[in-house]
Amino acid sequence: MTRSWHATVLTIYPDMFPGPLATSLSGQALDKGIWSLTAINLRDFATDKHGSVDDTPAGGGPGMVMRADVVAAAIDHAKSENPDAPLIYLSPRGAPLTQARVRQLSEGPGAVLLCGRFEGVDERVLKARDVEEISIGDYVLSGGEIAAMIMIDAAIRLLPGVVGDDRSLAEESFEQGLLEYPHFTRPRDWEGLAIPDVLLSGNHGRIAQWRREQAQELTKLRRPDMWAKVRGK
Ligand code: SAM
Question: What dotted CATH number matches 171-232?
Fold first, then answer.
């Protein structure tokens, strides 16, 4: 039997998981065993009786920092359970998450995801355990848990058998370096707005060409950075 894609999440809030991932497509895939999840409580690796995971920042300043020794013990445990999966710290300082990285992750055995809280994690553990840092965007969340859920959701919908029709994945935004074309459905006329005639023509060649042009126009207008890359290919 093939092993399912496995997410191991390190967090001080394990009860947040699977959370919304237990709903809809990801929830059905979880029930079918296409993917699985373990949420490990970082506090279980604390060395004191209070379950402390954080301490004051060296050099002073506001907030608290997650301790290297506690986080390292949790990582070592997680890696022993999910040894081949990449180890990722969700972090606003990380490389921006892309559809290409999500696809790579979905093609692997899973992911070990470290969720920070407070001011973040002691830098030494990131170095000592060779942790990859990934950001889900240029804004700051209060913790890595929601970022981890976003990454898991994006990866598992690419696993075989999760999305009903695989063609919808191939044409999606970012897959070919373009944003997706616009969609329409019934009614044919709505509030004085009609579905473009070409989509009702039954001419598959013309429809495909129209969609390609729309995708290019949208990308040019909304994401000149992506358009420049497509043009540069
Ligand atoms: N002091 C940190 C900084 O300025 O970079 C922010 C810490 S934030 C309040 C707490 C945790 O939320 C981080 O350790 C990280 O795990 C998570 N987090 C916040 N923003 C994120 C983002 N854009 N992408 C991924 N994780 C994020």
Answer: 1.10.1270.20
